[in-house]
Fold this protein.
Amino acid sequence: MNIGSARACRRSLRSRAGNLLLALLLLLLVAICIYPFIHMVLVSLMGAKSMKLSWDRLLHAQWTLKNYRRILSGSGSYLRYTLNTVLLALYSCALTCAVSSMAAYAFAKKKMRGGNRLFVLYLATMMVPEQVILIPTFLIIKNMGLLNTYTGLTLPTVTAFGTVLVTSFMKNVPNELLEAADIDGCGEFRKFVKIVLPMIRPVMISLFIFTFIGVWGSLIWPLVAATNNDMTTITLAVSKMKSGRSATDYGYVMAGNTVAFLPPFLLYLFLQRQFVEGIALSGIKA
Amino acid sequence: MRNLRKSGAVGWGFVLPSFLFVAAFSALPILGGAYYSFTRFNGFNAPEWIGLENYAALPRDGDFLRALQNTGIFALVIVPCEIVLALAIAAVLAEKYQNAFGRFVRGALFVPVLCSSALAGNIFYYVFSADGGSLANTVLSWFGAARVNWLGSRGTALGVICFVNIWKNFGYYLVILYAGIMDVPRVLYEAAEIDGASKTQQFFHVTLPSLKSVVYIVVTLCTIASFQVFDIAYVMTGGGPGNGTTSLVLEIYSKAFKGYRFGYASAIGMVLFLLVIAVTLAQRKFFRERAEE
């Protein structure tokens, strides 16, 4: 064996060790990201009233769904909170998707006097953090008498973001298609529903996902606008759990956390590709 | 019908529903917030105009100054950590792991993005609780270290809040940056390879320059988000101990909805707004200048 190949051999050994180290590092990161959820689910399924896990404990645990039965029944039930949040998220998704796709169609495909200036206003409102307008929004909803209602909680979640996102996608819809429809004498609204909407399906799914996850995880708005226990959202309930009398009832708390985590997680499992594509799209086009 | 089309009435018809929402719940509230910031207002009686009094009181308000300082700390710690981590992982995954393992890692690192910040705060409240059985203290005990009251003192509590923020959000920026790297034309790498550039050199001389606009977007998004720290701090510490981990948004919330000082809280809101605008413009200028080089 000559010196050159020995050196190459050593280099490939070193790079293989480097690769192994890199893979282990990535797996460690994966563990840090995933383990808290595994811990959460395990504690929620164990009868023991402790957060501590050990092999001994896991081997001798009495697995039970008791904590889930407790959290999903009685007053202040997570069933109610989940239902509230699902309804709010679906209302918000429906409104956002309808309103944004229509506006985006106009911005991208219609000549409007002042249209560009209005679009700049849309972009400008996206710069404003939600919390900066929290107080005026709260007062508007309060004066409309809509605190603690589904309508009041839903209306302010419709923002310019959806329109801006869909507009960037709408520009790819070929004009020839729309002109052909015009020649066929297709009405404006029919053209929108029959031709435009099917073509922008991917971005509508992304918008649906963003809106759903956004409303699901939103804390500060329900915190001020849903003060009535019957209107509590699941995220709001989660935020209160550690200060209530259940604070050290670990299994109970973690069962609540699991219930709050599952719907977005399931959505992700089913729509993984759309999640990733939507985020990449919003990042590159924003 | 033709006249209608020319004047753009059809277009306006399609915009109208969206416009009503944006006007009523985005544009109007900004004006309202600006107005309230010049008033004394408890949310019930009519607002009373007091000029700049709220703003004049800010520099003497210890809670506000602490909130401003903490918000700065959050941004300075969270933004670089999150971006560097996301960028490094994206580069490694794109370079070495465009396979099933890479897909698994990307999928797994995205899971914390799915849970709400409040949920992340709640889980990690227990992970970092003071007792010896908590996960964080168990890990410390493996190394023979004494247990720590993580959320009990300002320094460690700030660190924990930053950690949870990074843990929860870096996967989001990872997705954007990974997509950005995949969009870099392969020929650039092939040319660099022919010139004998190492993988590290390729990252700094090919990947980073091509990613400039994506990095700009990610840095801006991340900075704005770190100015808005609320959920995690609200759940984990409530701003405590004392006012040790309070943030601007926590101050807005507590001054308005606990203290019924809507005018004063609006002034804090305007400070936050100006801060966001200033940093966004500064970053745009910075990246524009870099792009011209």
Notes: The mean pLDDT of chain A is 88.
